[in-house]
Design a protein that fits this description.
Blueprint lengths: L13 H14 L6 E2 L1 H9 L5 H11 L7 E2 H15 L31 E2 L2 E2 L5 H20 L5 H209 L5 H44 L1
Antiparallel strand pairs: 1-2, 3-4
Helix pairs in contact: 1-4, 3-4, 3-5, 5-6, 6-7
Length: 411
């Protein structure tokens, strides 16, 4: 209904606007600033809403009725679809607070866009005679074309009239374009002729300027040739002076080189004499070295003979050591036997003492004779132990003496 458009903020929430603006820019890959009906249809169909409700949302969102959705129209369509999914009622006409800011009309025009939806068709509002007669058929045609709805006969006639009007507009547009093309060709022809005239004048001026430049260049070349001739003469004089100085330096270098060679030859003669004296000294040293070498060889041979003799002595000592070790083992076995004899003697002593006590009480045998026999056997055992110890000590001393002799022989 008529009224003034409020100047408040757009009713679409700011987060929703940012979200669907980003989606719009992602879909608008060609950056044309709008989405086609097929692109918008594929997005709206993802909401799962029925086709009549989607057609109503399209009719409310496509404000300029061009069959495409700008960024604000796309945001409005997605906002209405979200309202429908939340089971909020979709308005039959677009309220002023939902009109995008770029589509709001000045004060004094209709505040609401009259786009009622009735059973799959669109009807004009209160101002149907002028604005609604052309906008409502377009909205119905686009929504029916996009969502494949069954058209009514009245809507078909209005669509046909709308198509005829579009064809007439297209014909007039082509006629205007033809007139504009002819005018553009005439203007281009005049511009081309003017350009050719100016180009001819420019070329003439360029030719004159080129002639003047050539004359100036000819004069400059003559001056440069004279300067080059003078420069060449100066260079020839400098080159002659340089060659003379080079010849003098070369003579000086040759004289210095000759002097250096003479000094080098004298120094080489002195070094040769020094090397000869060193050679004679080396020869004398070589003779002394040969003499020392013969003495050393003789000393080595004598040392080897001594070592060989010492080895023979050591071998004999080793044989004696082996014999003594055998003797020690025999003495050890004898010592063990003597130990066993001693233990038997102790047992016999105990038996004899028992017998003595018995005999003293019975037959009256002399205990002194029995005691003497026991003492005699103990003395024999002690002598055997002493002999074995002496043998063992002598063997140990012999082994130590043999080891010290071996060390002396090796040294």
């Amino acid at each position: 209904m008529p009224g003034s458009v409020p100047t408040g903020e757009w009713a679409v929430p700011h987060p929703t606007k940012l979200k669907y603006n980003k989606m719009f820019h992602d879909l608008d890959k060609a950056r044309v600033g709008s989405l086609s009906g097929n692109q918008a249809r594929s997005i709206l169909m993802q909401s799962g809403l029925p086709n009549p409700m989607l057609a109503q949302i399209w009719a409310l969102s496509d404000i300029d009725k061009d069959g495409r959705l700008t960024s604000e129209e796309f945001v409005l369509a997605m906002h209405l679809a979200e309202m429908a999914r939340q089971r909020e009622p979709i308005p039959a006409t677009l309220p002023s607070e939902l009109i995008p800011p770029s589509f709001r009309r000045p004060r004094g025009l209709s505040a609401n866009i009259q786009i009622p939806f009735n059973g799959g068709g669109l009807s004009a509002g209160s101002n149907n005679n002028n604005l609604g007669a052309s906008s409502a058929p377009a909205a119905g045609a686009v929504s029916q074309e996009v969502f494949d709805m069954t058209p009514a006969s009245f809507e078909d006639k209005r669509k046909e009239n709308f198509d005829k009007g579009n064809a007439e507009l297209e014909r007039r547009r082509q006629a205007i374009q033809e007139m504009q093309r002819q005018e553009r060709e005439e203007r281009e022809k005049r511009e081309r002729e003017e350009f050719e005239r100016r180009e001819k004048i420019r070329l003439e001026q360029e030719r004159k300027r080129q002639a003047e430049l050539e004359s100036q260049l000819a004069r400059q070349r003559e001056i440069q040739e004279r300067q080059e001739e003078e420069r060449r003469k100066v260079i020839e004089q400098r080159e002659a002076a340089r060659l003379e100085m080079e010849r003098q330096r070369k003579i000086e270098r040759q004289r210095k080189r000759r002097h250096d060679l003479m000094n080098e030859r004298t120094r080489e003669y002195e070094e040769l004499a020094h090397y000869k004296s060193q050679n004679s000294g080396i020869e004398l040293h070589t003779v002394d070295s040969d003499t020392k070498r013969a003495d050393l060889l003789q000393l080595v041979e004598e040392t080897r003979n001594q070592v060989r003799e010492r080895k023979e002595i050591i071998d004999g000592m080793r044989m004696k050591r082996d014999e003594l070790l055998e003797e020690i083992s025999r003495s050890t076995s004898q010592e063990q036997e003597l130990g066993s004899d001693a233990s038997r003697a102790k047992s016999e002593r105990a038996m004899l003492e028992g017998r003595m006590s018995i005999s003293s009480s019975g037959s009256g045998e002399s205990p002194q004779s029995v005691t003497f026999e026991v003492q005699r056997r103990q003395v024999g055992i002690s002598c055997l132990c002493l002999v074995s110890c002496l043998c063992l000590v002598s063997c140990v001393l012999f082994v130590e003496f043999s080891a010290s002799d071996c060390l002396i022989a090796c040294k």
